[in-house]
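Job type: complex structure
Entries:
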Amino acid sequence: MLDKSTRRDFLKRSATVATGALIIPQIIPSTALGMGGKLPPSDRIVMGGIGLGSQGTSNMRDFLELRNKVQYVAICDVDANHAANAKGLADKANNNKDCRIYGDYREFLEKEKLDAVSIALPDHWHGLIYTAAANKKLDVYGEKPICRTIKDGQTIVSAVKKNNIIWQTGSWQRSQTNFHHAVELVRNGRIGKITHIEVGLPNGNKGIGTPPVKEVPAELNWEMWLGPALKVPYRGVSHWDWRWILDYSGGQLTDWAGHHIDIANWGAELEHTGPVEISGEGVYPRDGIFNVPVEYDFLCKYANGIEMRVANSARLVHGGGATWYGEKGWINVDRGRIEASDPKILQEVIGPNEIQIYKSDNHWQNFIDCVKSRKEPIAPIEVAYRAISVALLGEIAMTTGQKIQWDPVKEEIIGNPAASRLLSRPYRQPWSLPTI
Amino acid sequence: MKKQYLIVLIFAGLLTVFNACQKQNGTAYKALIVTGQNNHHWKSSSPILKDLLEQTGLFSAEIAQSPDKGGDMNTFNPDFSKYSVVVIDYNGDSWSEKTKSAFVDYVNNGGGLVVYHAGDNTFPEWKEYNLMIGLGGWGDRNEKDGPYMYYRHDSLIIDSSAGRGGNHGKRHEFELIARNTEHPITKGLPKHWIHGADELYAQLRGPGKNMEILATAYSDTAKGGTGRDEPLLMALSYGKGRIFHTALGHADEDGGPALECVGFITTFQRGAEWAATGKVTQKVPYDFPTQTGSSLRPDFKVLTVEGDLAKIAQYDITKSTKYYSDLQSHIRYEAKTPADYQAFEKQIIKVLESSEASEDGKKLLLREISWMGSDLSIPVIKELAKNEKLKDVAEYALARLQPSK
């Protein structure tokens, strides 16, 4: 819920200097070409957007702010108002009226010739549309969490790898100085060997009861909004508030897993594995259509002995963010802050012969740079999948009330058929998740 | 339920002490509820408290009824020493010196005590009783009786300023905040939970000795409160005795939400066990309220799986999902083995097979059975898949239960 406002505020506060320093050298070639600061068309990345609600529009603005290196030429949204607003933004930036609008991503992907696409959709659509974009060989900037289920995630990872596309996850905290600094300190042993980790994510939403069934507004294609999810009547809940309904999301837990669990994994080198045992409890609303856990607290054990506790921030000593506890101290990092057991730890400088962590000062720029260089961006697909897997396995432990044994190599739940069924959410016909 | 209890009371007639509990099936501890005078509906609350104590399976409970107000209190001499815990649902005339002395001896020698709601209003002049309850209100209590105690910004404030003791605003639902989550009574309960509509006692004052505040609630000025976090659940000691003090539970003529609240019920039951034994063996119930909302037990009965399924069978998509959520909680808390799942599954199958059950209800049950069901469910799900309205969700369930197909 805090994601959007906090993010923009924070970027304004912290990134002004960095943006200037980063952007200016890169426009020198275009000015040298005498194009009035604009890149020649061949150097410009031609993009489209799928899902232009609050987060999708926010991403689009971030790309357009990259000094004309990105051009949006097509928009796809199931809400005609969203699409029209986004077209307005694109047309203004392009100084024309040409941005094309689609209501069906299949037509959009079929007709448009693009370099890259930015995608920001409710999680239940990620499996199908991320996979379809990858299969079209488009480079993708995709919102976290990258999947609603483990099965969706496995399919998306395979599609991205098989098609060899450039993928950037919207886990933009990776491109922030304080998170980078914290991870670099932890990786270089400044708090010693890691023993355990705490990840604090926001508390849940209190719910709205059971609103009456309503007529679908003219601008919204409800059938297409639901897509592969089970058909339910429209109750005035779609944009934004899908976050509180299990058919579409796992709540704050899965929303924020792509941020703080991702950062925790980055610091503790757990980016390419997963826990072996997960157990915990959630607090669920007792009534109403919002049914995601409003409080959650689960413990993940890793094969190397590290334990990671994930909970709503009110339950943790350090509140929100990622906290690594090592043999010599601890570091906590959250938006707008970094703290340590001893403040001197934070003043440590990482020497040239020490471990250098991938550095990006602007998450959207990093994607565009990689689209051109074909190098891996700072938030690649598999680490995003491993971050959300932790939350999805926690969700399964809380749903079943059972201790879950997980094989992070085979990516299977061991010895629990009921829990294993929760690794997927079957798609409603005619939709089906392709086999990659 | 009110009617049943009234009949019991009438039947009990003139007996000052009676035992209406017929099932003496080896309960470990005896409890005595002291009542008979109160500015609250004691004829409703005392039988409810008795029922709640007996529901734990730990207690057999009796009710000691005092003479009416103005009656001869010399006739009121319960033998406290026979009991492991005494519950005070009483706010009235002073007891005789003999009874007071026996009560002090009882607690001093390790007897358990539960002070319930207006039980902290009574006996303002009795010094030893006020040491037991820690904080009290009304009865002309003021600065002479001890300081106000409350929380502000997570700090306990002990405030000796002059003023009345005891107050409350309008009845409303409010949030309890645990101040001690390690005490046996509160351990394992959520730190925050919403209590059913109740009087929120405020400005309690007293000696507050040997007292731990277990939970407070913010007394909202908008509801006529003090703007302070007021103590509502306390644990104390007096001599060898343990005391649990709950300021919650304002009783209507027929009980009402303050008593039906699972938070009240659970803390009362756990507090009584702790007062009697020093330990709490009761599990936190699956329907304990959360920060998201209160949880009431109509007629003081736990919602059963059978009851939930009967309601789900009548479910209409426009209505609340309460019973479905409750069924999910039962499964989450109670099913641990494949056999447990199958027991739930068999009950669900009956509803799925029923021609009486609503399609909306079946849709919900098909979602649940999709993960916790087994091959047992396949025939009925296949049958339901023929119904156009249930086809999608039946296929959803089949896709999970038969992934190869």
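Summary: Residues 404 and 416 of chain A are 8 Å apart (CA to CA). Chain A is about 35% helix and 20% strand.
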